[in-house]
Amino acid sequence: MIGAGHAGLAISRVLTEHALEHIVLERGEVANSWRYERWDSLRLLTPNWQSRLPGYPYRGDTPDGFMTMPEVIECVAGFAAAISAPVRTHTAVTAVSRVDGGYQVATENGAIRCRSLVIASGAANVPHVPAVREAVPPPIKCVTAFDYGNPGQLPRGGVLVVGASATGVQLADEIHRSGRPVTLSVGEHVRLPRTYRGRDVLWWMEHSGVWNQRYDEIDDIERARGLPSPQLIGTPERATLDLNVLRAAGVEIVGRLAAIRDGRALFSGGLRNQFALADLKMQRLLDTFDEWARNATLAVEVGTPERFEPTQAPESPRLSLDLRNGEIRSIVWATGFRPDYRWLEVPVLTRKGELRHDGGVVTDAPGMYAIGLPVLRRRKSTFIIGAEDDARDIVAHLASYLGTASRSGGD
C-alpha cells in the first residue's frame, strides 16, 4: 500500500479483516497531506457525521459541524492507531517496477517486493497551474492552494483568484475579508446550496442515492471525474458560499482566464452561459432530491421544496485586466490538482499522466489497484465517507486475484 491517508488506511482495515498480510508505506506521517498541504482555516466540506471509516464512526459531540484540519488529522491518526495499521512512516517511494509476476517497490529505505500493490497516494499531489502562468509579469506574486496558508502571506493590494471551485470561492472569500480587493476568474463550476429543505445538501446526496451511483452507471465517466469540486464551505453557521454571496460582498467576478498578453489578463466573455449552465445543473439535482423525497418513506422531517435565485452576472464584466499598473499584487491559482506518478515505471498511464483503470483495478497491470481518485467506483469516492465501500470492492477483487495467482503457481 502506498499512502497512509484515509483511503489507504481504509484498505488496510479491510485487508486485515481478510487476513491478508500487507504494509503501508507513507512518505511522511499518517495523514501527511492533511498536515502539510492545506491552508490554515480549511474545514471539511462534509459534515462530521459523514467522517466515518470502516468500524470507526464519528465520535465527537458536534455531528452537524465541519472538522478543522487539526481535527481531521486527529481523526485519521486515531483510526490508524485503532486498527494497528502496519504503517512505515518517512518511507517515500522512489520507483515501482514490474518483476517476476509482482512488483518491486524502491523506497528511500530499501526495496520491497510484493505480489500486489494498492496506490493510495491521492488525487491532489501537485497543483495544476495552466501554462498561462509563465506570462505573468515578474512583480506579481503567484501562489497555489498548496503554497497558501493565510492572507498574511500575500502582499497588500489586489488579488486575482483564478478558479471558482470549492477552493477558489473559499480563498476569494477569506482574502476579501482580510481587506484586500479580490477579482475572481470563473470558468466551469458546480453550484450547490449548503442546506436544502432544512438538511445539509450532502445529507441529500447520500440518502437520495446520488452519491452511491456507480462509475459504470454514469454516461460520461471521464467528464464526471474531471468536474471541479462544488462551491461549498464548511462553517458552524452552515452558510452557503456561491458567486451571488461573493459578488454581494464586493468580490469582482470576471470570466475564465483565457490568456495573458503584453501584461494584460484576458478573460472570456461567456460568463452568463457558465452561470446558466451551473444553475441548470443545480436545479436538476434539486429536482432529483424532490422526486426521491416524494417516493421515500422518510424517518426525518424535511422542509418544502426550495428554489434559489439565479446567479447574477455583472452588467458589464471586464474582459481584461492590466497586471502591470499595480492594481493586482498577487495571483492565487485555484485551478485544481493532479496526482503525481513520476515514480511509477509500469506503463499504466495515459498521455495526460492519469492511471488507466476500471473502477480502481489498473487495467494494464494485474494485481495493481488504486483508491481515493475522483469517482473511482462511486460519486463519493474521494470523500472520507466514500473510502469504505470502495475499499471493500477493491479488496474483494484483490483477494480473488491473489487466490487465482496462487492456484496458477504465481509467487
Overall description:
With 411 residues, the chain is an alpha/beta fold. The protein has two domains: 6-125 and 339-407, FAD/NAD(P)-binding domain (3-Layer(bba) Sandwich), CATH 3.50.50; 128-333, FAD/NAD(P)-binding domain, CATH 3.50.50. Helices cover 27% and strands 18% of the residues. It is built from nine helices and 21 strands. The chain has helices spanning 6-17, 32-36, 69-82, 166-177, 201-207, 221-226, 243-249, 271-295, 387-407; strands spanning 24-25, 87-88, 93-99, 102-107, 110-114, 117-119, 126-127, 141-144, 158-162, 182-185, 195-196, 199-200, 252-254, 257-261, 264-267, 320-322, 328-333, 337-338, 357-358, 361-362, 368-370. A five-stranded parallel β-sheet has the order 8-17-9-10-13, covered by helices on one side. A three-stranded antiparallel β-sheet has the order 3-4-5, with no helix packed on it. Strands 14-15-16 form a three-stranded antiparallel β-sheet, with no helix packed on it. Strand 4 and strand 5 (110-114) form a beta hairpin. Helix 1 (6-17) crosses helix 9. The longest helix has 25 residues, at 271-295. It starts with 5 loop residues before the first helix and ends with a helix.
Précis, in short:
This protein is an alpha/beta fold. 27% of the residues lie in helices and 18% in strands. It has a five-stranded parallel sheet, covered by helices on one side. A three-stranded antiparallel sheet has the order 3-4-5, with no helix packed on it. It has a three-stranded antiparallel sheet with strand order 14-15-16, with no helix packed on it.
Based on the model shown, name its key terms:
411 residues, alpha/beta, 2 domains, 9 helices
